[in-house]
Give the backbone structure.
Amino acid sequence: MTPTPASVCPSASEPATRTHTGTHPAYPSFASYVRARQTVLLRTARSLTANPCDAEDLLQTALTKTYVAWDRIEDHRALDGYVRRALLNTRTSQWRKRKVEEFVCDELPEPPVVPAGDPAEQQALHDAMWRAITKLPARQRAMVVLRYYEDLSEAQTAEVLGVSIGTVKSAVSRALGKLREDPELRPAHR
């Protein structure tokens, strides 16, 4: 018995009947699938890229592709394989599209390596600086610490101490003059 044309290809006026609803008892919806498998799929994405943020983006792109194809996937028991393939294909596409710019040059672009000083000398200078700072009057000491150790601007220092910017400028200038004259710091200037 041969099927009638109507049973093989329904006419445009007849509603098309789907034999597959696009759901599986384990995952009745896309959202339930994502909730159930998100951790495992993210771990797979993390294995494809070193950056955790890139892995999240990669997974989101693969899940978007899966969502678009959700009704066409007949065997929802194979969803993990489908998403993993989407992850791999997306990552491969990203890798192929990346632009690598390399320029040939005669000299290496790295800055010259400056040899580090002796740690003992650096610590001695640090200690001498703190001893010199503690000799300053309290107000000047506070301004120097805020300006140079806390890296505040003159305006921020003035706001913290409740003084004008001009006061900060003049007090810091006087404090730096005293530090330049400190006998413990003079050998460091040679």
Q: What stands out?
A: The chain has a mean pLDDT of 80. Residues 12 and 145 are 82 Å apart (CA to CA). The chain is about 60% helix and 0% strand. The radius of gyration is 35 Å.
